[in-house]
Amino acid sequence: MSELQHSLLELIRRTSAEIPDDVQKAILAxxxxxxxxxxxxxxxxxxxxxxxxxKQKSQPICQDTGSILFYxxxxxxxxxxxxxxxxxEAVKLATKKGxxxxxSWTRSRAKTTAQTSDPARQRFIxxxxxxxx
Length: 133
What we know:
two-stranded antiparallel ribbon
């Protein structure tokens, strides 16, 4: 596995299994403000447990992982084709390892299918930036 593919695999794992600390702190703060025994408190407790389990097990925190968007800042002349190919392989491996759900809901077909690593479910947005020497 190339260094790029390894880095992409780790990026996919972290973005699917972890949320930013400030978001988690906001959830905890909300949890502390809810009344004991309330439906809201129960819901927030479930969310907090899910956040911790996803992080510990490197499993998707969200059930909807059917489409993946990659925003890439790159210099003019960057080999986008090779980057996309390497990224698609990393997505396949991430799906196989369970970092991404192995299936997703397809509204147009109204059924669940193994599409997470389908290239049609991945989008790349390249932003060309000027490099300074």
